[in-house]
Design brief:
473 residues, Uridine Diphospho-n-acetylenolpyruvylglucosamine Reductase, domain 3, 14 helices
Length: 473
Amino acid sequence: MKLNGQFEIDASRDLVFKQIINPGLMAECIPGCEVIERIDSTRYRAVVVVGMGVVKARFDLVVAITSEDPPFEVRSQTTGIEGARASSLVAENRVWLTDLGNSKTRVEYESEVNITGRLGKFGLGVMRKYLEKIGVRFAENFKAGILSADIEVIPHKTHEEESTPVQSDPEPLKTTPTAHPIPENFETQEQNSSVCFPETVEDAVRLLMDEVDSFPLAGGATLVAMRNAGLVKVEKYICLERIEKLHGISVQEDGRIRIGAMTRHYEVADSTVLTGNLAVIRQAAAAIANMPVRNMGTMGGALAHADPAADYLAALAVVDAEIELFGSRGARTVGIGEWILNWYETCLNSDELIKAIYLPAPAESYSSYRKVARVSGDYAVATCAISVEAHHQQVRIAIGGCGPAPLRDPDHEFVLRGESLIDDELQNLVKNLITRADPIDDVRGSAEHRIRLIPRLAQDAVTGLLEAHASSS
């Protein structure tokens, strides 16, 4: 995959070039860089940690400067492996500088990156988004650090100036202490992982804190599959099945609906209390995969994984669901809009569990859910959920699968007038949702295809909403 970008910095081109080839600064600016060492005048070894949700990796890389044209351009090659060759990376990089005058420089870069192994299985679309985010953070760090007196400038020799033999032992240049050194023989899959069965959330949290590489086990379909594919390292599963407080759907005294995190998809789909505008949650649950998966999977497990193509997310977004968490510091509640931070990344801390999902009291109204998938039972290419509040007929629309989190634009959501809708209002809303979209290319569809689906899904969902309105009148 090809990555590119640019940024401007208030510094002369000569200074920027010196710092671009300064590994001391690179160690400070590259997110996740733990160690950087000299091999010789043009080669450096770096240890970089990456993380996408529950998928973590530590790469041992060699960066070789292949050509320089000071102060205009530098080319390099990055090669390396993760762990015991679980994944490999090769990247051809080019950085070039343009003098903009007044001590201002434009930095442009491009990389052709090839990742194989377990991270290749994770999906190049997601990897691209992650690496693009790293590029943005690098630019921010570089601009902040280039003029810092604390940054050590490492002497650098060009190819022509090199006169000393290659060192047999790398000379440490900059090291950030870490509690997790590179394992000598990292295994991506352990055959003797065990399972614990706590009976309270307090016990489950204590196990999460005490056990290294432990994971909460809900339905298990996604987590076990990711472990078997080598995407996550699990030493111990903390099975939540026996914790009674995590099960069931109930109506609270204030009318809100509480869904325990371990409630199965089929229970949500069959619920008789999810009525009116909350029926969209039932519809989304019924669209999940197939009956065996719905019998095994849980709402809490689906939320924790935070797959953008999952069915629940858009439906929960349009009803403003809240998520109750419990961890070592007690309980806290977050809104669904705060839940997802990035691709497969949520605000759930490592010592926390999802305890329950809370929905507002159902209104005497209606809702609609639409999904586009390659085949029946597959993850969605894109989804759309619509819910209408009875009191003022405000139409709420959320699009799933077109970014790390569902797309909503409350400022442009409109009022349904009787049994009709104003096309201009829907079109304006759709245009604004498209500007917020950030889809990926993957095996289910291209980013461009997902963008094209947004108007169709919104129109189909609104049509379903009007049909439900007419049948209830």
